[in-house]
Amino acid sequence: MAETQRVPKRIAQTVLHSLKAGVVPRIGLPYITVGCKDEIAALLHDFDVVAQGGASFHFIVGRYGAGKSFLLQAVRNYVMDKNFVVVDGDLSPERRLQGTKGQGLATYRELIQNLATKTRPEGGALTLILDRWINTVLQTVASETGLTEDDPHFSAAVDKKIAAVISSLSELVHGFDFAKLLNMYYHAYLDDDEETKAKVVKWFRGEYTHKTEAKQELGVNIIISDSDWYEYLKLFANFFRQAGYAGLIIMIDELVNIYKIPNSISRQYNYEKILTMYNDTLQGKAKYLGILMCGTPQAVEDKRRGVYSYEALRSRLTEGKFAHVGAQDMYAPVIKLEPLTAEEMLVLTEKLAEMHARLYNYDRQITEDELAKFIKIEYGRIGADTKITPREVIRDFIELLDIVYQNPATTVSDLLDSDQFKGLTEGEDSTADPDQSGQDYTEFTI
């Protein structure tokens, strides 16, 4: 039996309920992460470069349920442990990278709302970061000068330190107003002016819709808009570095929602925004910034509607002549997820069985042979060698554990040997790939 870490019940319940519902839990992933070691190692190597002032951009490509969102959340936990600030969000019909009706700004607001750090992993960390930055400056000045906060020279020394941070940002696009607002927040913090602090945070969150309102309340002539929200994330990346963090990682899932835009011109504008972000990271125009985007193979590789329909992106992202299945280049801009092997899935189900038993306070009933039999049946589906996904197997397995736990007279063997289960997994192709079906995509992924 594999050694399994003792999982707190709160986390175990969240993990099991989320996986059974077909979504990725935001907590507890280290307890169940299996596979993707090469992908995670390659991404973390890139992020080490980001922490040194570089930038990176990767697409994570995989079918529905293949593990894209799971990998994204696993990486999210790793990079927060490495002191990065992380923003993540899903695209949708209302949230795009570019739009004429506020869809780009809606994506920015979603990202900022989910802004997270190691000490605030659930999101909403912007105010925490701003306050921590000011406290750090105050402590640094006190340590360097030996002055106390009561000393009349202390305030001047702090102002000088703040000015050094702000001046470095002023040189960037939109940096002057960004720096002005940081300075405004700093003085409001010192004066315990909660109203001004709230207004500055409102501006940083992109919640001002008219320039006149921002001018009246804050004295700035600019607001974050559909066309320039990404520039402000670049500013935040630099500021977070100044505030003591390693940098900023942007994670965007569900690229399929760009693929689904019916208007070809609107799609092209969105792909043009991706090209801008990609070029910035590769040409040194962005610092302390890492970007990950997730999509299905069709959403990326389709030359009619996908990312590859934009020639400037296709020519940059297409695999070279030496890449093939089993020998991927993990440092390439497009990382293709390979499905978990039956052996890896066996390890995962064992972890889940242990977690389930501890959550409901019983000795694990399912045996090693039964685990192996379950995996054998699941992987015996028609077309399973190419189309089976972790999400399907995990959902079936947790349902199996729940039924056996709630019905003591029913055994695991009874369910595995039932005609209904065998008929479903052996007699029907229940793993049809939605990428090839032409159907509308509404499912969210693990």
Concise summary:
Helix content is 54%, strand content 7%. With 446 residues, it is an alpha/beta fold.
Short key terms for the protein model shown above:
single chain; alpha/beta; five-stranded parallel β-sheet; 7% strand; disordered C terminus
The N- and C-terminal alpha carbons lie at a distance of 26 Å
Largest sheet: 5 strands, parallel
What is the number of strand segments? Answer: 5
Beta-strand percent range:
5-15%
**What Rg do the Cα atoms give?**
25 Å
Question: Which H/E pattern describes the elements?
Answer: HHEHEHHHHHHHEHHEHHEHHHHHH
Summarize model confidence as the mean pLDDT. 88
Low-pLDDT stretches are 425-446
Helix content class: 40-55%
Can you tell me the overall shape? globular
Sequence-ordered SSE layout with sheet pairings:
Blueprint: H1 9-20, H2 37-51, E1 55-61, H3 68-81, E2 85-90, H4 103-113, H5 126-145, H6 152-170, H7 175-190, H8 194-204, H9 211-218, H10 229-242, E3 248-253, H11 256-259, H12 264-282, E4 289-295, H13 297-301, H14 311-317, E5 334-336, H15 342-359, H16 368-378, H17 384-387, H18 390-406, H19 412-416, H20 419-427
Parallel strand pairs: 1-4, 1-5, 2-3, 3-4
Helix pairs in contact: 1-15, 2-3, 5-6, 6-7, 7-8, 15-16, 15-18
